[in-house]
Structure formats: structure tokens, C-alpha cells
Amino acid sequence: MIICKRMVGIRLTGVIVLCALLFPIQVFASLEFKTSIDTDLITLPEDVHEYNRLFEEYLSQEKNSELSFLKVKERSLIDPIVQKHFRDGLLINDVKEQIDAASLFTDLSVQQPVFPIYKHALPLSPFLSPSVSSLSSLDRYLFSPLIKNAGGSSFDNASLSFFTIPSVHADDDLLIPYYTDIETSPVDFLLYYISQYQNSDGSVGNSRQYEFTVRLAMILSQFQKTDNDQYTLMLGYLRDTEPVTVREKALQVRFLMHIGDPYEDILHEITSLQKNDGGFPLSPSLDVSDIETTLEVALSFLAADHGLDDSLPLALYYVVSSIPEDGGMFYGRDALYSDPNYPLINKTVQMLQPFEAFTLRINNEDVVISEIIDSLFSFVVGGYEENSGFSSHGFFNDVSTLYTLHVYGEYNDLYTFLFDTSKSYQKVDGSVGASFEEILVSLQGFSQPDLVVSDMQFVGDRISGEDASMRITIQNNGYVRPKDGILHVFVDNVDIGLQLSLSQSDVEALSFRNSHTIVFDIPFSYTKRFLGNTSFQVYLESKNDMTPIDNWLSRSFSFASSIDSSPSFPLYYSAFASSFQGGPSLTFSLYDREDQNRVGYVLGVRELGEETWSTYVVNVEQYIVGGIFSEGTTYEVIVGVFGDNQEVLFFPEEEITTIRMSATPEIYEGSIKGDVRVDNLLSSPQIFVQGGSSIYVENGEFEARVPNGSIMAWVQEDQYDAVRYRFNVSSAEIVADARLFSHLSFDDESPTITSFGLSPFFDGVLFNQGIVTMTVQAQDTLALDSVDIFYFDPDESLWLYVTTASFLGEQSRIDWFVPHTFLGEGYQFRAIARDFRGNVSIPFDVDVTSIRDGTPPSFSFSTPVSSTVWQLGEEHSISWETQAINNVNDVTIDLLYGEYVEPIYRSRENTGEYLWSIPYDMSYASDDVYLRVSGEDNENYRLGVQYTTSSFHIVDPSSFVDAPWGNPVVVTDTLRDEFYGGRYYDVVSAYDDAGILHVVYQFIRDELGDTRILTQQLHYLTFFENTWSSPQIIFEEQIETDNSLTGYRSISDMQMLVGTDAFPRLLWRQGLSQGCESLNTQDIFFMEYVGDTWSDVMNVSSNETDSRQPDMTISDMGVVTFIWSDGPAWTETCDFIGEQGLSYVSYDNGEWGSMTSLFEGTYPSKPQLVSLGGNDIDVVYRSGDVGELAHVRFSNNAWSLPDYFMSARSETPQLVLGENGTLHYVFREFHFRTQPVRSRIVYAYFDGDHWSTEEVSPIVDGYEVFYPSIMLDGTNSPYIMYERRNTENQRRDGVFLSQSPGGEWLTPISIQRDSQFLTSGTLNTNISSLGQVSALWLGSYQFHPEIFYNQADVSRGDSTIRSFGVSENVIFTNSSATQTIQFVLDDARDVDEVRFLCNHRYHREQDNPACGYIQIVRDPDTYEYTPQLYTAGFGNDGMDLKMDDFSYTYHHDGSLSFSIPFTLSPAFGEYTNNIFSVIWYEHENEYVRGWFASPERFDTYLDENVLPPPVVGEISFLKDTVLANDSDIQFSTVTFQYGEPVDEFRLYINHDWYADNDNPRGGLFLWRREDDVFMELGGNNYGGDIVTLLPELSSSFLDEDTHERTIVFAWSLSPTYPQTEGHTLSYLWQDLDIAYSSGWKHLLDESFRVVSDDDYIPPALLDSVQVLKEFVARNNIDTQEVTFVFSSGEQVDDVRLYINHDWYPDNDNPRGGLFIWRRESNSFSELGGNNYGSQLVTLLPDSHVVIDEESGEVRVTFIWSILSDYPISFNNTLSYLWQDSDISYSSNWKHVEGQHFSIID
Question: Which tens digits make up the pLDDT trace of 106-138?
């Protein structure tokens, strides 16, 4: 069953349904090209005189159409004659979408295929419900009910014909005449284009003429463009032409209905063509239905009330059943390519709109048309992704979707985007697209209302305080009615909160153009604000208005004084919280106008909840009231007026402002959030918000934090009206959806250009092939918008357009590249300025005497080349070549690090080569450095620039920092956007008990311009578990200043402490520094971190004297105590008044104690204090100008007398508290009392009773010391750090001092690499409770000041062995050859005793006797170590300790190293593999671990003049596999150390004694020294019949220098040799002079196999290992590659690569990755996890294997990247292992000799 019924409550009303028909809708099944434009109209004649003649002719004859094509600017876009003068890309034609002509049908006489769309089959027996007949009684969608016109009369819209037939022709025979700037209206411009190409019979288009003509006539009727001959001609064509297709017949029915001709026969004819599926075919002769045709028929049925019971539901059913669920529709051919057809979908959803309220019932299920519409609508709109920004889908798709949005009234962001995008496709002749179908859709999509506020008048009298009425007249000059409208009324550019929405009937009354108007009467019941000449502005806001700029109207009216002579109110007032002189205050402003009845203004104030106002008389426009408000209290504020009778009149109660007061108004701030619209467009001008500052909105939206109260805001740019809005803002609340409207101000005066300059421009000469800067200065009444630049081409005698640029204030600058074709004389340049209202200036011309060849010099680098690696401190040649038309005397060479430029050769002689000494400064180090050479020629001054074609490397070879320090890292990054242009200054830090490091550093951005703006910030961040938090701005000040830094209050003397609560506290000094008197502004400031935020800044000193040298401490109760130097006040003449003392105050949880002055009159300074617990405090300070260091204590609420413990002029002191009340104090002093005169660091220690002092900085010539700091670890051990300056190169580094266990200060070590330096006064140090020492400082990184960080671990642990060995591998037991034990212990502070035993019985090899027992004991008083031989026996009688050469050294990392030299007497004898063992003790003979054996061995011999006996070094054979074919040769090599005495050597294959299997004897060979002969022994009994010794290939050699002997045997095997595995070697050698024989020895774990020649597979052989790079960056981007090349590699089953294998340590580099390739799965993977360095590297999937099937070569390539955690390191080594599992072969780990690589940044 199928039922059609009208639904109630559907989204769109019947009026919108009318709109759907008034915008006729068509979907094309075929497309065609428009008729080509006559090229004579758009191609200018090349002859300039002919051009000028045509221009004058068209102008005199008012041939506007032809004249429009002669516009110079248009020519510059289309004429190739013009384009040839510009380089590529200067002028770019718009790319217009074209449609493939092969896919179009251009002739209806040709049978056109129709592509059916099926979703499912039609029900076999559809039938209709009788209730459908009720449709006839419903309102028809064709007409709206009643419209009220401006005259007040009513008319029935049904009386209007759909087509209006004009009775009298207009004078103009065109659809629309040409007018100036017609191109600004896309509809008019398109209509004008259509008017030029109507066919002679009245039709339009060159195919489907009837369809296109009737659709165009419908549109023109709606547009009321019917009073012209072209429209009449169309109607004649439609009357006289017989339609052919069913679609045309359906359109004809609607045409005939509305001209009153019979149409029923045609309607019945159409009905008879309905197919079984319910659809209608495009042509009567076709068998398949067509969606578009069916919809056109359905619309005709609906218009004629025809077929409502049968044909119409069936037709709609066919349509909806052909639509997929998701709405994605296809033409048949489109479906082949899965490409939905957007024009088809759009046309379908447009034509379904009149049926939106319909429901079909199919098989007892409802099909709701609105749901089908939603599906189609969602599919179309969903194709435009808003979250990533809309993008065009092509013109036809875009404009079709635009019209769909228009039909359904969806005027959203997508509508705006599609309108602007589609409009941009309009060509210079007005046309769009490539078919008439696109033109018709564009006409409908482009149509918009154009509302105009045409009149504004007051009705009746205008008296202040009396009711008044304003009458507003609005008309629509557009092509469609508006969707809505809101009327805003402003008075004197102030929003008075009056808005009026247009009613539905008002909107309908504005449906058509041409003076359809509505009139509003707006009552004003409250006019006490209006007086005298008052300006009223009206703005009509409408969503899709064509030209919103004319929606504004402004008129002035005069209001008389009030009848009762009472004063008028101000137009508005504002009042908001502020701060004045440290207390809460109120800032208010009001709109003041002259009023003879008003004596003054009154401000009323009362606390919230009270009834009585306190009044204050004010007589200014802006006023600040203070001293009457309480902190945190909420008040009500109102403004009133009073006259001569003193009676106060307040604003109405709804105008009361509620404000919460505070001396810190920021804590009660609120926010205003909304958008800004200028002439109804979201815009981003500058706005002003009271209580804040001018801000820039973004994308039309703004948000501002403001004080609570009533706030005024407005657009603040010269070209816009400053319409002021008032917002009531509550504390901590957001005023959302705020709206600021503005309007382009009226301006009818043209701008004036005052100057137009070119640069470089010398004596009227320009140069081509370079940038010329054009500077235009102009003036305007309001504001300048842009300037057009033209040039005069002397060859063409034409002015041609160049570019358009915006003004910044009164100046516009354009950089323009002068093409090489500009050459010669006669050129001119012209500027024409334009203001925002489109007024243009008189042209301003500049004559150019000539344009010369400006070919700049060119350069090319010879060195360095790509991938060059240089090191800091080296000297290298930079060479280049110069090519120039003139001489280039001087050049500049710069280094480029990203955007940073570092000059190294500035404006010096162009010699072609520069020998550069690279500074030893890490800022120069980078793996991405470019060079740039630049220079000017000497005549034309043209600048040439050349860069190296690729980057090169400058590496830092400086050694790493000594233990316990790591390598410094950079914490900050001034190149980040938020920090760019600024720099860092001071930095402070402190640890909490959990080991979190809290850091604050100072950041300053200095912006130079017309106004110098200085921004000063403090940034807070933390460091924990090797992770830095993001910096947080906790303090910010911004001032406008000058080159003298007037008003700038610099921050200094920052300090930070963290209490037991883990909250940091921050202290600093701040004030002016412009002359002595300004020093009185210096104060001490404090902030603390409470909960989860930083407090406000608190002024600790808060006086008008010079406060300086602050310090603070925190007690165990959390009380913060401050002390600083204070007292004198400076005069302008740099005298000071008053006495200097110390000021002292405490702060406890928000409560301040009373401030106390100490020691006045003694000139105290530089105080330092520590808390002893409770309220007890120790203070150390410098007393007197000469300098006595004094110690005082505050205990039991009283101060002790000073204890003067040293005479010193202390500088930058620091005091810390140790355990048991001890004090540690350090300072810097310039020491002049003793020689040499020097700066020094002094350490003072207070043991609870007495002070002791010592100088701890070494006396070293050429160095000065500064800024010491001191720290204590958990054992009360002090650590001192300070700055050290090299007086020769002025470079500074930070150094670290610690004590040995005996209290001696060790030699200081630097905490930076040799190439790193710090900025003076920035070193900040701390130590955690876990023994982590941190250092922060300001240094240079890539030439930018950055914060650096380093740390050291000084925590105590169990002592462990770091290294243990001996200096010599061989010594002679002759009582003179020295052997040295080298032993290093970590964490050795508590080691009391160490013992060494030579050849401990548990560790010695064989029966080597003991060769000495050494004991080293530490003196408990002096902490000195002394060695001695321990007890008797143990070989001590043969050992002699070299006491004078014994040494030990304590190191800063807590390690202890020993060097113990000794000799052995001949009594010990000769032994190999002697070994030392060690044991040590702590804490009075408590041993730490048992005996530990050294990994190193040594041999002893009797005398250095007698060579040791021979030692077999190595025996090996060449091949793992040998062919039994008499030709394959096996080689076996033996080496002897000290091999001269070897007389004979025998080699035995498969010795019986060592038979690992049943292999027979395989040969016995002899080499004899006497005659250097090789021979076989034993005959066939020893395998002589199956083996052949090859003497000619065998050899022996003795190295006279090293005494090493090498013997090589060569032999081959016969085919009868057993072809098995496990063939072994045994050997015997003899020294006949001493009758020595070694006896037979077996070569363990070595064997070879024998195979026949036929089935032999050669074993794999590693040919080479290839390492790609010497340097690799640790950025996870740069890659390293290692390739293994194997011959016969098909036998290789896996290959492993190990970076920095432990067995081959070239240095201390960490394990850097273990990789494997497996043949079975052909896969690469990492092994071992983090234990083998997996966390430092990433094996990449680019790793690969290449197998050459012919040669059998296999290439295995590992590719990996280095992560940033990998330390910068050199000499990273490579080791490998490969295996053949078929023969159980493993190469074992091998080291890649001579190849290593470095890791760099």
C-alpha cells in the first residue's frame, strides 16, 4: 500500500516550499559547451594606435559591453603580449574547471542513453489508500498566503502569474544593461553574459533549448527581470515550440498553467508514459525511467493537483527507492568508477524539497520523504570536511551544493565558503562553468537578498525624558527574500540594548526586489539619555545579505531639554574594580554631553545588601575612587545627576553595577568571550576592552580577561565606527556570546599620495634581475587600504598592472623582482592609493631614466665540499671562485646555522681563499653547517650570494667532563616560537626532600621599534627522574621604555629555598637603576608556591631606601626569615642620608612579623643567615667598610654580641648549616694583603665553638676566581663550586672542589667541556639529600644564550673495584726491572687497609710460587697511606717495594687510585701467568669482600739479556673444508714468540692419541731449521699415500726485531683421502741445543672436513665489512649502515652485529645495540633488549639482503638510527659473528679492525 499524506511540524514551512518552486530545479543528463565568445571582443589588437581608436569609439558610442573587454587590467590577465613581460608566476590566470567534451551530448536529435538507477524491485501490486484524496484540501506549495506592502494594502499572491507577461516593453531590450562595476554582482554579471548570447528564436543554449529556456524564464520571472524584449522573445519561443522529451513536456505543463492555456491533454499524455517501476523516461521512446524526468513530472502533478491518488505516489516511490541509504547517487557510468555524482544528488534533494512533508506507506512501512532528504543532504554536506578546512570539489559540485544550502535555508560557514569559491570561478566576461546547466544553477545559487535601510525618521516631538517613536523603512533590492533579520539601534555609536527581530510576515514582505518595503515604528520610552544633537545608527543584520555595508543608516536628530528642567543622564557609564596606591579602588567612566540643567554627576556606592547610597560628586569623564573600599567586599555602584535644586537622580535600578573589590583586582577577574563582525562579516580588527588593553581577535572570535564590573568594549581601528558595547562581568564568570558590531566608516574623500620612492634607485637608474623596494606614503581622512602599482611599457606604450599591496598606517612597502626583459629607457612607475571605501587617489608617477643590466655576481665554493668534517681548533681553507660582469673587490663569508648567521670574514678582500682558524667554542659545532659568500660588484652595486650546495660538519673534539660529573645538557631553547627574540639571564634552583629540583630562571624580550617594549618574565620548571617539566610563567612585567631603559625595574639577587613541605620560595631584588636617586626604589620581593600555584608577589622591604643583598632561610616549622642590607637613602647628587643597617623580618603562613633593624652604625653588609630550628637564627655578615666578618646568633628572643672571626672584604658569600650546629661559610675576596695579589676563595668552618678559615682556590697564574657556593652532603662533607676566569682569553668555566677523607682540598676540576663557557655570575649549585649535585648556568649554544645543566653523584656506597692490573706483561727478575700494581677503588673514602698477594694459592696457575705480600695501611690521624711487605714468607724475600715511587690519589668522585712499584730478585725465577690478588678493609679491619684476582697476568724471566724460551703463539689452518682432489691446497701456520731456538717442528694430522673419531692418520710433516727444509715422515704408515706435502709452497720466517718465528705447511689430499669431518692437528717442537722437546700437543677445538670434488659446496667466506658513515647524528633520523659481503654466502644461516662489544673495548662507550639477520625467515631483529643497548638505537626495516644467484655472493646490510639518549661518543666499535648451522660452524665473535664511528649532535 502506498499513501501520500501531509505531515505536521516538518522542518520547513510552506513558505519555504514556495521558494523551492520559485527557484526551479533541473539536473542534466548531458552537458554541452557554451558558444565560443567572439575573439575580437577579448583579444586586443597589437597595434596600440588601433587600441586607442577603439577605446575612444566605444566610449563615445556607450558600447559598454565592448568597452569592458578593453580594460587594461583585464588585458593584463589574458593577453600573451602583456604576459611576456613578466617572469613565470608573476601574473597567474585563474584555472577554470573544464568538462571533458567527449562525455557531453550536444544534440537532442541524437539518441541519448539514460542510465537507470535501481535499489530494489517495485512491489508487484501497489495500490492507493482513499485517504490520499484529502490532499486536495491542503494549502498548495505554489503561493504564500498574504504579503503586506509598503503602502499597507494586501494582495493575494495567487493572483501573480508564475510567468509575468509584460504589456509594454522597456526602453532597454536587454535582460540587464551593462553598468560600471557590474562584475561586483555575480547575478547581474551572469545575466549580462546571458543577454549577449540569446538565440535568434528566443531560446538559449545550443542543446536542450526548450528545457533551458523554460527554466531560465522561471528564474527571470522570480527575479522580476520580465520587462524587456529578450524575456518576451523567450515566451514567444516557448509558445511556438513543441517539446520533445517527457522532461520538457512536464516543464511545458507548468508553463501553460500560468499563461492560462490548456494543459490537460499534455498532462494525460505524460501520465500514460509512466513505467511499471513508477518512473518516467526521458523520451517517450525509451523503456527505462529517469530520476530527473520523474521529479519534473512529479512537480507538474503537484502543481496541477493531478495524479495525487496514483501517479504521483508511484513516481515518488520510484525516486526514493532509487536512492541508496547513504544518499550517494550515481549515474550509470559513474557507478563503474565508484564516484558519486554530486550534481545529481544536489538536483534530487532540491527537487524533493516541495515533498518534504510527504510520507509514503509501502508494505505497511512508512517512507518519510524528509528522512530521504536528510540522507541526501548529509551525504552532500559530509563531503566537505570542516575539521580540516573546507576544500573545493570543483565548480559544478560546489555551486550545486551552494544552491542546495540556499533551498533549505542553511546559511552557515559552508554556504559562505561555497559562495566565495564558486564566485571566484566567474570569468572576465561574466560566464561560469562550461555548460548552460551550470549557468542556470549558478544564477540560483548566487541569488541573495540585498536589504537596505532606506529611511529613518522620528514621529512626533523629540524632548529629553518624553516618549518618542522612530520609523524605520527597509527594502530588498536583491533577488530573493531574506532568511531573517535583526534590527540593531545605536545612539552616538553606543549600543543601548535595543534589538528588534523581523517577523515572518516582514520577511515575506521582502521576498521580491524593486521597492518592496516594510516599515517599523520603534517606541522609545526612556529618552533621558538623549539631549541636543544626537546621532542614531540603525543596522539590519541578515545572514546572507548581498551587500551588508548598506544595511547601516545614520541620521542625527535634535532633542530638546526636559520639560521639568531636570538634567539628562549620560548615555552610558562603566565601573570596574581597580587598584590605587596599594588599595582597592573603582575606575569609572561615563559619556558626558553638555546640559545646561545639570550641575554635576554623582557616584553612588553601597555594600551589597544595604539600602542607603553613599554619594560622591564627580565632574570628569573618567574617575578613580579609592580609600573607601574594603578588601574582598562586594559593592553596588550607580551613577546619577543633579541640577540646581541639588536633587540627585540615579540611573534605573537595572543599571546598577555589582563589583567585588580587592587591592589585587586580578583575583576577581572575569572574562568576555564572543565574536566581532564588521558589516556582518566575522572580522579580526583590533579591539579595545576597558580595564585591559587592545587585543587582536583571531578568526573573528575574541576572549579577554577583565576586572569585574561593567566594562566597555569596541572596535578600535580608524576605518571602522567605534560602536561601544557595555558588558556586566562578574568575578570568575564568563560573559559568553558577546557580540561586537562595527561598520566601515563613511568616507567620500580621496586619499592623497605624498611620495612614491624606489630603492635602490640611483640618479634615475634601476637594475633588473633584482628586488626593487617601492615605498608609497599617502594620507587619507580615515585610513588607507591598499595601493595599486603599474608600470609604463615603452615598447607597448601601455600602462600595465604590477601588483597590489596593503598599507601599514600611512606607508606601503612592496618588494618586486624586476624581470630581465625590463631593459632600456622610457619606463615609468605609477601608484594609485585606495581607502577602505574605495576612493582612489590621483596617480603618482615616477620616471625612470633607464633600466640597466643588473646581473649580480655569482660565486661557487671549491672547499669545503659535501660531508666535510672539521674540528674545533683546527685551521682550514675556504676557497671560492667569482664570476661577475664587473669587479668584486670585497666579499663576506658567513656561517649559517639554520636561520642564525655568524660572520667569519666580513667585507674583506676577495682573494678567493680564506684560511679559517675555527674557534675552540662549542657554539661552532654542528652537523648541519652551511657557508655563504656574498659580495657587490663595484659599478652597479649588485649583490651576489652563494651557499654551499650541502651542509658540512664541525665537530667538538673536546674531552668529556671528569667524574663525578656528566656532560652538560641544554635546558632551554630560545629558538622556540614563544621564546624567539628574547634571552635568558639569571637562574636559581633548590632540591626538595624527594630529590625534585625546582628551578626558576629569568627571561627578557627586548622589542625595538617605534616604541621599545621590554618584557621581563620568571619561568618555573622542575627536574626529576631525568625529565624536565614544561616552563610556567610565574611573573611578568611589560613596560614601554627607551634606549636609557627609563622605567625598567631590573631583577637581581635571585634566591630559592624549598622547605620540608616541598614548596619552593623565591626571593629577589628589584628596582630602578637610572641614577643614584632611583636606587631608593630598590626593594626585596618574595613569592611562594602554595598548594598548586604561585602566590602573588609580596614586597618584603617596602620602603624608600636602597634595599639590597637579601638572604632568607626556612625553619623546620616553615617560618621564612629574611635579612638584607638597608638604611641609606640616596640623593640626586649621589650622597646618601641615614645609616646602613641590616633589616630582619619573618613570614609565617601569610602573616608578617615586625621588621627589625640591626647593627646600625657599623655599616653591616652582605648578611647570610641559617635557621637553627625553632626561632633560633645564625647570621654572618661583613661589618664596617674595611671588613670584619662577624657571627651573631638570635636565641631566646635575644641577639648575641658579634664574634669577629676574620678580617676580609668578603664578596658574594654563602652560609650553610651543618650537622650538630656547625656552620660552613664561603666567600670571594680580592686579596691584597699578601703576595701575589690575587682573587681567592676562602672557606670558613665553625665547629660550634671556634671558627677556622683557609684559602681553598689554588694560586694559578692567569686565572681569577669569582662567585663561590657551598653545599654539604649527609656526612657534613663540604663541596665548593666557583667561577674561574682565564685572564688571557676572558673565558669562564665552573669548577668543583671536594675534600679527601683527611680534609685536604683536592685539585679543582671543571664541570664543563673545554669548548663550553659560562656567563659571569650565573652559576647556581645545589645538592639533594640523595647526594645529587646540580649545576645550572647561562652559556652559549649555537650562538644563543641558553640555560645549561650538569649533575654529579657524590652519594656514598660500598667500595668496589674499578680497575686492577699491572703495568708490564713481562719483567725480568734481576732486582732492577720495575713492575707496578695499578689499582682503583670506587667509593673508597672509608678504606683503611689494602693487601696485595702475588700468586694466591686460590688464583695462581700451576705451581707458581708466591712472589710478594704487600700491605697498605691508612694512618687514622693523617689519613696518609703507607705500603709495606706483610709478614714473613709469601715470597717477600724476593720483592723490593719502591717506596719513593709509591703514590695514591683521592678523586672528586670518591675513588682512590694506587700505584705500587716493585722489583723481583733472581731468586724468584721464571714463571708465566703470575697473578696478583687483592683484599681491602674498612672501618677498622672490617673486610669488604674476599680475595679478588686481577684479570691481568705477567711473566717473569731471569735476565733481560737472555731471551726467554720459545712460546707457541698460534697454530691454525686456512680452510674449514678441503677438497680431496690432489689440487685443493690446505695451509697450516704456526707462530713462536722468541722462536730462534726452535730447531725442528713436526705437524701430525689425526694423531692416534687425540683421535676424536675414526679418521686415519693423515700425514706427518717435518720442518728443520738447519737447512730450512720441509719433508714428509713415516711413509704410507702415517698417511703418505693419501697426502702430498708441497715444500715449494711451504715457508718459514724469523723476525729479527720481535724474535717471532712463523712456519707454514702446505699440502693437498688425494681422492682416496677419507671424506669425513673432524680432522685434527697435533704438533711437537724441539730445541736440540738444550735437548728440549715439547712432547706432542693437540690443537684443541680446531678441525677441518674433507669432501669430494663433485658434491663440494664451498664454505662461506667473509670478504669485507663496509661501514657507511664516520659520523652519525643522534636524532633518530640520521642512519648508519654496515654491510657484510660473503663469497659463497648461501651457507650463511645468521649474521650478528654488535656495537661496542665488551671484549673489544676501545673506550668506555656503552653497548650500542645487538642485531641479527636470520636466513630462515629472512628477518632482521634486535637481541638482548636494553641490556645490549636497545634503548639507544632503532633497527630500521630498511635493512636488507641482496643475493647474487650466479656468483653466490650475499650482502647483508644492517641499517639503524641513533636515539638522543645515546651519549656523544667517539670510536664506537663493531663486532660480528656468523654461523652455518648445516655444519655447526660459528665464526665466533670477531672485531672489525680499523673501522669505527662517532655519535654527534
Answer: 332 333 322 222 222 222 222 222 222 222 222
Q: What percent of the chain has pLDDT over 90?
A: 55
CB atoms within 10 A of CB 1420: 9
Question: Around Cβ 1294, how many Cβ atoms within 10 Å?
Answer: 30
Question: For residues 485 and 451, is the Cβ–Cβ distance under 8 A?
Answer: yes
Closest CA to 1720 of 1693, 1692, 1741: 1693
Residue with C-alpha cell 597590489?
Answer: 804
CA pair distance 343, 99, nearest whole angstrom? 13
Per-residue DSSP letters for 776-835? EEEE-SS-EEEEEEEEEETTTTEEEEEEEEE-BTTEEEEEEEPPTT--BS--EEEEEEEE
Helix 186-195 × helix 209-223 angle, to 10°: 130
CB contact at 8 A, 247 and 300 = no
The span from the CA of 274 to the CA of 1376, in Å, is: 125
Angle of helix 342-351 relative to helix 291-303, nearest 10 degrees?
10
Neighbouring C-beta atoms of residue 526, cutoff 10 Å: 14
Q: Which residues of 208-221 are buried (b: 16+ CB within 10 A; e: fewer)?
A: bbbbbbbbbbbbbb
Confidence of residue 546 (pLDDT cuts 50, 70, 90): confident
Q: What letter represents residue 1319's amino acid?
A: T
Which among 690, 616, 692, 670 has a CA at the least distance from the CA of 648?
616
pLDDT at 1484: 66
Rounded Cα–Cα distance for residues 1179 and 1190 (Å) = 8
CA distance 407 to 26: 13
DSSP track, 462-494: -BTTS-EEEEEEEEE-SSS--S--EEEEEETTE
Start-to-end Cα distance in the chain: 78
Nearest residue to 1368 (alpha-carbon basis) of 1355, 1347, 1384, 1382: 1382
Strand, helix or coil for residue 246: helix
Please tell me the distance from the alpha carbon of residue 1528 to that of residue 1517, in angstroms, as a whole number. Answer: 14
The pLDDT tens digits for 621-636 are 668 888 899 999 999 9
Highest mean pLDDT among 166-175, 1269-1278, 1511-1520: 1269-1278
For residues 1709 and 796, give the distance between their C-alpha atoms in angstroms, rounded to a whole number. 74
Task: Please give the pLDDT value at position 222.
Answer: 85
Total-model pTM: 0.53
% of the chain exceeding 70 in pLDDT: 87
Q: Are 296 and 290 in contact (CB under 8 A)?
A: no
Answer for the pair 744, 837: CB distance below 8 angstroms, yes or no: yes
Residue 1295 is classified by DSSP as E
Mean pLDDT of the region 1611-1628: 89
Q: Amino acid identity of 73?
A: K
Angle, vertex CA 211, rays to CA 207 and CA 216, nearest 5: 105
**Rg of the Cα atoms in the chain:** 49
Coil, helix or strand at residue 975: coil
Q: Are 840 and 833 in contact (CB under 8 A)?
A: yes
pLDDT at 1539 over 80: yes
Q: Which of 185, 139, 128 is nearest to 307 (CA)?
A: 128
